[in-house]
Design a protein that fits this description.
It is a single chain. By secondary structure, the protein is mainly alpha-helical. Helices cover about 65% and strands about 0% of the residues. The protein is elongated. The mean pLDDT is about 80.
């Protein structure tokens, strides 16, 4: 195996593991567990994370927050 191949085989999963850990952290999941999962099985971790996020966004919110009305008023000059 050439040195370039070794670097690619070890560096690509490491970068993907960092990406999955960051993505998991932004969606309130355990970054450490997703880092390890992404390091061991990168494509599977990515697909599972996509599936979980899609499932989360497909559900309606528990409570709907009212939006504050915008008040337009004329400012004296």
């Amino acid at each position: 195996m050439s040195p370039d191949t070794v670097v690619t085989v070890t560096f690509a999963p490491f970068l993907f593991a960092i990406f999955t850990a960051y993505w998991a952290q932004t969606t309130q999941r355990s970054a450490l567990l997703w880092f390890l999962f992404g390091l061991i099985l990168p494509p599977v971790a990515g697909m599972v994370l996509l599936w979980l996020n899609a499932k989360r966004h497909a559900q309606p919110p528990d409570s709907i927050q009212p939006v504050a009305p915008i008040c337009w008023r004329r400012v004296r000059t």
